[in-house]
Write a structure and sequence with these properties.
The protein is of the alpha/beta class. It is 44% helix and 13% strand. It folds into 2 domains: 213 residues, Rossmann fold, CATH 3.40.50; 238 residues, Rossmann fold, CATH 3.40.50. Bound molecules: nicotinamide-adenine-dinucleotide (NAD). The site of nicotinamide-adenine-dinucleotide has 27 residues, from helix 1 and helix 5.
Length: 459
């Protein structure tokens, strides 16, 4: 049996909250800290501020019995053996990661250290951040023996975050101290030893069994680089397949066939080869920019990454041109939009390509009726409801009397729509699908004008 560790997680967002719930599920005692008082109040009262499968069930199980919520970082840090920093690291104006939240948290932790702590970067940070964190803590008068800084990058994906955390492909523990490595290995022992999977009382529907994930013990710098390089590589895969999709369009080939042919090569793998309207979200855009910035600072131009970014921007513009080619003019047209989140399964709209497209439609004078299963409240804060922008209760209401329907997010439930109903709901049966959710031939048979990405329209 592994020993419970007392853990503080600072930042209760997509990463911090999921990590806290999962650490509790693994048998640890967790205090989850946030400086947003309303979020902490909501969490204490039983609310869940983000949309994430299985998170409500886990929090329901462990709230006040394994996980506590507080704004008091100082007490949480004092009581914890391991402190995970999971605050945001957004993009700054230069493209670099803005580390001011990490800096603020590190200073505050330093002021409360009175016994040995491992301070862990869970946030995605550039290489060398561990040295800055160490310096900040020492500057606040804490002696070297009282703490270590480690990096444990997080690879979860929004929408499947709980499963990704508990069934990770690998656990990266970057530290230059044996003592810190030992403590972090204890934290992850329930997963790495497999004991969690053998005894798991997973909530209904949640995956229980799994092979234990390998633990990769690395230097702190290597761990920091692993995270940036992983995200940059995944973004590169998306931009790559999008250009191949555009070539398919030019020659009349089907990107799905091509992607399958590429992806069955085990050296390449099938995942992240879905053509679409480009990547978005709170990670890929900023992490690609930050990694490019890191290499620039080291005197190396990572031009491959500049190209990845350029292709991604162009992919959205290209999709918009496709919509224009189907509709000719925009002013006065009514457009139905399915999907606002940057991908299916989440309410996160940060850097969502869907929002860029909606903003452009509004700018060109169209009226938009949008539906998203989880992201409408967040979108309303950025694009307020108006006569021109309406948020509706389901996909059919979005399609109602619309001149065309755009699919902008790959929600599973959109694949299951009643196409006959959509057909008679739309004013014109035009669907422009930025996520390739349907078969062109099946759509043509049903009488739709159906445009997608990288696939020839069926005749
Ligand atoms: P988020 O914006 O959802 O959450 C960050 C939280 O930190 C917020 O609740 C905020 O109020 C809190 N916070 C900020 N300053 C604080 C402070 N001084 N004290 C206490 N709390 C503070 O961010 P996120 O999406 O969870 O991402 C966090 C980090 O994890 C980022 O570095 C991100 O790149 C990385 N990451 C994110 C994902 C993802 O899918 N979202 C995946 C892997 C890694």
């Amino acid at each position: 049996m592994s020993k419970p560790v007392s853990i503080a997680v600072v930042g209760s967002g997509y990463v911090g909250l999921v990590a806290a719930a999962c650490f509790a599920e693994m048998g640890h005692r967790v205090v989850c800290v946030d400086n947003d008082e309303s979020k902490v109040k909501m969490l204490r009262e039983g609310g869940v501020p983000i949309h994430e499968d299985y998170l409500p069930e886990l929090l329901g199980r462990y709230r006040n019995q394994g996980v506590e919520f507080t704004t008091d970082l100082s007490t949480a840090a004092k009581e914890a053996q391991v402190i995970f920093i999971a605050v945001g690291t957004p993009q700054s104006q230069t493209g670099s990661a803005d580390l001011s939240y990490v800096d603020a948290v590190a200073s505050e932790i330093a002021r409360s250290i009175d016994s040995y702590k491992v301070i862990v970067e869970k946030s995605t940070v550039p290489v060398y951040t561990n040295e800055w964190v160490r310096r900040v803590i020492e500057r606040n008068g804490v002696s070297k023996e009282l703490f270590d800084v480690a990096s444990n990058p997080e690879f979860l994906r929004e929408g499947t975050a709980v499963i990704d955390f508990l069934h990770a492909d690998r656990i990266v523990l970057g530290t230059d101290s044996e003592k810190a490595a030992a403590l972090l290995q204890e934290v992850y022992a329930p997963l790495s030893s497999g004991s969690y999977y053998r005894s798991s009382t997973a909530v209904p529907g949640m995956r229980g069994e799994s092979d234990p994930p390998p633990v990769l013990l690395t230097s702190t710098k290597a761990a920091e680089l692993i995270k940036h390089a992983s995200n940059a590589f995944l973004a590169m895969k998306i931009s790559f397949i999008n250009v191949v999709a555009n070539i398919c369009e030019a020659v009349g080939a089907d990107i799905e066939e091509v992607a399958k042919g590429i992806g069955t090569d085990t050296r390449i793998g099938p995942r992240f080869l879905s053509a679409g309207i480009g990547y978005g979200g709170s990670c890929f855009p900023k992490d690609v920019a930050a990694f490019r910035y890191v290499s620039e600072q080291l005197g190396m131009e990572f031009e491959l990454l500049s190209e990845v970014e350029k292709i991604n921007t162009e992919q959205k513009a290209r999709f918009f041109r496709k919509v224009r080619s189907a509709l000719w003019t925009f002013r006065g047209k009514r457009i139905g939009v399915l999907g606002l989140a940057f991908k299916g399964g989440t309410d996160d709209i940060r850097e969502s390509p869907a929002l860029d497209i909606v903003k452009q439609l509004l700018h060109e004078g169209s009226t938009v009726s949008a539906f998203d299963p989880a992201a409408m409240d967040r979108t309303r804060e950025v694009i307020p409801e108006s006569a021109q922008m309406r948020y509706v209760g389901d996909a059919y209401a979005a399609a109602n009397e619309a001149d065309a329907l755009l699919i902008l997010t790959d929600w599973q439930e959109f694949r299951e729509l009643d196409l006959a109903r959509l057909h008679y709901t739309l004013r014109y049966p035009i669907i422009i699908d930025g996520r390739n959710l349907f078969e062109p031939s099946a759509m043509a048979e049903r009488g739709f004008t159906y445009l997608s990405v990288g696939r020839p329209p069926a005749q």
